[in-house]
Write a structure and sequence with these properties.
Blueprint: H1 3-27, H2 33-43, H3 46-68, H4 75-79, H5 86-97
Helix pairs in contact: 2-3
């Protein structure tokens, strides 16, 4: 067996295992919003995306409130990420590049211009699925 064949087998095994873990976690009734969002993106389910997005915004609100009350919170994070939801921008751009309707999904800390179409094409949203 060659080294590349071993790596391919490892990659397939890891991907299968992670897929099973995702399925099991989603089968539970209280899957975290980020996990629900991943499932919506993988399946292209716009209704699940909308529900998961609302859950994510609620989770983020709680996380930020907790961080603001934490005396050991990272001050840089509170000055930056607390005002612009970069993770949300990335998730909405990814969903949009997969052909999902995201125009109605908004957040107060995502400026509209960050979701505008870029001047040059972005890489395919499916590139992450292909091993290097």
């Amino acid at each position: 067996m060659s080294m590349s064949s071993d790596l391919e087998d490892d990659y397939r095994n890891i991907r299968f295992t992670l897929g099973r873990l995702l399925e099991q976690a989603l089968a539970r009734s209280q899957a975290p919003a980020r996990l629900k969002l991943c499932e919506a993106l993988l399946t292209g389910d716009e209704q699940k995306l909308e529900t998961a997005w609302a859950d994510l915004l609620h989770e983020r609100s709680r996380e930020l409130a907790r961080e603001r009350g934490n005396p050991r919170a990272d001050p840089e994070m509170l000055r930056t990420e607390a005002h612009v939801f970069i993770e949300g921008v990335a998730l909405l751009r990814l969903a949009g590049s997969l052909g999902m309707q995201v125009q109605h999904l908004t957040a107060p800390d995502i400026p509209e211009w960050l979701l505008a179409s870029p001047r040059r094409p972005r890489p395919s949203a499916l590139d992450w699925r292909t091993p290097p």
